[in-house]
Amino acid sequence: MNMLIKNICCIGAGYVGGPTMAVLADKCPNLQINVVDLNENRINLWNSDDLSKLPVYEPGLSEIIARCRNINLFFSSDLQQNISKADMVFISVNTPTKTKGVGAGKASDLKWIDACARQISKFSRGKTIVVEKSTLPVKTAQTIKKILDEEVNKSSENYKEFFVLSNPEFLSEGTAINDLLEPDRVLIGGDDNDAIKSLESIYLNWIEKEKIIKTNLWSSELSKLVANAFLAQRISSINSISSLCEVTGADINDISLAVGTDRRIGEYFLNAGPGFGGSCFKKDILNLTYICEYYGLKEVASYWQKVIDINNWQNKRISELIVEKLFGTITGKKITILGFAFKANTNDIRESPAINICKELMLEGCHIYIYDPQVSPNQIESVLGKISKSTDDNNFDPDEGSWHFEESIYKAANSSDAIVITTEWNEFSNIDWSNLSKSMRRPAWVFDTRSIVDVSYLQSLGLNVWRVGLG
Ligand code: NAD
Ligand code: UGA
Predict the structure, then answer these.
(1) E strand or H helix at 105
(2) Which of 18, 31, 141, 294 is deepest in the core (most CB within 10 A)?
């Protein structure tokens, strides 16, 4: 076939589509790249002159957008035109857990994938390589191909032929640009060598050939789920041990170091925390367990389910211990939450551990004051409900749980009974604790779920400190 790719369309301008295509455009000036999305508001934000308004916050992203946008990188809501021009179409749409129907709560909801396949099938012309960038259950390529082929040979004037490849994305939010520039590997699964070569030749613009792994479609699709499951498993493993450290006098950071320096284990993904968040780990493991159950592999499914169970438990035990340490009642007390993003260097709050911690604390009737450098009050409202009345308002009920948003750490912490560090933003490592501690109501507590504070220093300022995994 030997197709020379000149025009790419990426369906889905989200956390993967946006940064991935930005790096592709930057590294391949000869390619014309159109990123399309049904969500016009998102497209408008990608096109906004003010780069601080881009819908995705990622270090290094705005600089690339400034270089490439409207040169060889375009954001548009015109799917039809951009699909019809493309030699290669990336599917980069969301694949969340199904909320109803067969497989609800476990299986991936493939309705957006189905819709994409139909759009590509209808609008594309000539030979088109369709690339699965989204994370998908193993065997999805078969379904996509079936839908695509519905339009093949339908009209003699409009010749169509499709080749489906799997090319899962391994970037992490917060380090996405670096991960895309220097990935550990690029995985391409397919059954047509020429189509594989066409995609490979794009990556070869900046990635060494040795880093490109080629497999069949099913290995590629499944590898992505397994990679996320393994990463999440390490976090649940270390989090489970953090609780054992807390009751035995061991320190989880020492354990991570001692265990992680064994090269067979490795140092990464051994930071104890409030439980993993983000849009993918939970949904991908749930999907893996669903697939295992579908194939009758009950033991395998329950093995991976435990990774999620420990994660939920870790999250819940943190909110419970906050209540317990604050004398068993937090009704009417003020608690400061530092960080609402699911990890540092992103504005993404999907499945953020802070969400459940805040919900649990509010249920107990406390007043939450949230500070996050990149998350907006609107985003928080979407998960915690309407922002609460001001405490000065006559209708404010001091015994009802409430949440508020603050623009500064110091305002958020003023007169609070406790500070909970939920995200490891760099600025939380540089807090002026000497000043801040004076403005808190005593006895005051700091709950560090990310292991970033100097415990003895804070104690010397008269603060009570709980740090994850510290006995
Ligand atoms: P996202 O929700 O941020 O973006 C998906 C976008 O697709 C949305 O803007 C949505 O409007 C758009 N969309 C959905 N259906 C469409 C259609 N038919 N036509 C046009 N646009 C459509 O999701 P994301 O975080 O970018 O994740 C996308 C996929 O990549 C998922 O499968 C995810 O598992 C996978 N993934 C995500 C990450 C990550 O860090 N977020 C990393 C690797 C892989
Ligand atoms: C993760 C994977 O790391 C990516 O390889 C994958 O592409 C992506 O999921 C995906 O498929 O969406 P991401 O969720 O963006 O990336 O971020 P991670 O760095 O993996 O962090 C996930 C969660 O685990 C965060 O809440 C983070 O704080 C937590 N974490 C991470 C820990 O608690 N401890 C650690 O040691 C590492």
Answers:
(1) none
(2) 18
443 Cβ contact partners less than 8 Å away, ≥ 6 residues apart: 417, 464
Per-residue confidence (pLDDT) for residue 210, from 0 to 100: 98
* Catalytic entry in 169, 173, 221, 246: 169
Our measurement of the distance from residue 332's CA atom to the centroid of its chain's CA atoms, rounded to an integer in Å, reads: 33
Q: How far apart are CA 211 and CA 214, in angstroms?
A: 10
* pLDDT score for 150: 87
Number of C-alpha atoms within 13 angstroms, CB side, residue 114?
4
85 is catalytic: no
The reply to whether 280 belongs to the active site is: yes
CA distances (Å), origin 90, targets 119, 195, 278 = 12, 13, 22
Q: Ligand 2 centre and the CA of 343: distance in Å? A: 8
Neighbours of 251 (CB within 10 A): 18
**Could you count the other beta carbons within 10 Å of the beta carbon of residue 46?**
22
Which pLDDT score, from 0 to 100, does residue 471 have? 80
| 420 SS3 class | strand
Which residues of the chain have a pLDDT value below 50? none
Residue 314 one-letter amino acid: Q
Q: Which DSSP letter does residue 74 get?
A: E
pLDDT for the residue 52: 95
Atom index in ligand 2 nearest the CA of residue 224 equals: 11
The one-letter code for the residue type at 299 is E
Burial class (CB in 10 A: 0-12, 13-18, 19+), 435: exposed
Ligand 2 atom 11 nearest Cα? 280
